[in-house]
Specification:
single chain; alpha/beta; TIM Barrel; 8 strands; globular
Length: about 280
């Protein structure tokens, strides 16, 4: 059983939902990433999603595009990101780590070489944003052979037939994109999620995470009522950007970003307690 599967099984047994923060590796500078990952775990993260900076992040809004630009300005490469995960693993062998990025850097390294290096570094899952259902059969078996879960994206516009195909290709969990837009978009209709997630669950027994548009503890708690996991990215990355602009010390960035995540953790846990008592 993979580390991701173990974590979701333990959460299910406790009646809790997973909180998955996203940060871009190398933002605001490479030396800050590992400490920030540990701070997020201490604040209540169940799974860590680590973004691989890319020059053309097509699914990301301006907040995460800015994070990629800052990371790339420091020369952060895919190999650097793997080194950060390996350093994180020196102190934390339990928290699942998912790399999120685009296919180009993986292809540049070579798929088999990437999969082996990621597994050696301590990565548990890989989410390739622009990997299509047609291309996935060439990629996901290589990841699986290295012991990596292939996390797959599902959009609100995904057809029923395509949904079934993507669910068959996935491992670890499924990431449901809650909005017809990019990360950090302004509105999230939580009420419309339930029926769509029911449709997803007809095709899979994997946990379903919801991301894009989770900006506040209230939204995180509402999403946790219908999803197995809540992904928060742009809200955290925006705070990093604000503090980086103030030349804040790493410790202040860790404190303030982890505090924001902890507020979401408390709201989600309060919802779980409320549901359990109903």
């Amino acid at each position: 059983m993979s580390l991701l599967a173990q974590r979701f099984e333990a959460l299910r047994a406790d009646g809790r939902k997973a909180l998955i923060p996203y940060i871009t590796a190398g933002d605001p500078e490479p030396g800050a990433t590992v400490g920030l990952l540990h701070a997020l775990v201490a604040a209540g993260a169940d799974v860590l999603e680590v973004g691989v900076p890319f020059s053309d992040p097509m699914a990301d809004g301006p907040v995460i595009q800015g994070a990629c630009e800052r990371a790339l300005a420091h020369g952060t490469s895919l190999r650097d990101v793997l080194a950060m995960v390996a350093e994180f693993r020196e102190r934390d062998a339990e928290t699942p780590v998912v790399l999120m990025g685009y296919l180009n850097p993986v292809e540049a390294m070579g798929l088999a070489r990437f999969a082996a290096a990621a597994a050696e570094a301590g990565v548990d899952g890989v989410l390739v944003v622009d990997l299509t259902a047609e291309e996935a059969p060439e990629v996901t078996p290589v990841l699986a052979e290295a012991g990596l879960d292939a996390v797959r994206l599902i959009a609100p516009t995904t057809s029923e037939a395509r949904l079934a195909t993507i669910c068959d290709q996935a491992a670890g969990f499924l990431y449901y994109v809650s909005l017809k837009g990019v990360t950090g978009a302004a509105s999230l209709d939580v009420g419309a999620l339930d029926a769509r997630l029911e449709a997803v669950r007809r095709h899979t027994t994997l946990p379903v995470a919801v991301g894009f548009g989770v900006r506040t503890p209230e939204i995180a708690a509402a999403v946790a009522r219908v999803a197995d996991a809540v992904v928060v990215g742009s809200a955290l990355v925006a705070r990093i950007a604000e503090l980086a602009g103030q030349d804040a010390a790493r410790e202040r960035i860790e404190d303030e970003v982890s505090s924001l995540l902890a507020d979401m953790r408390r709201a989600m846990d309060a919802t779980a307690v409320s549901e359990a008592s109903e």
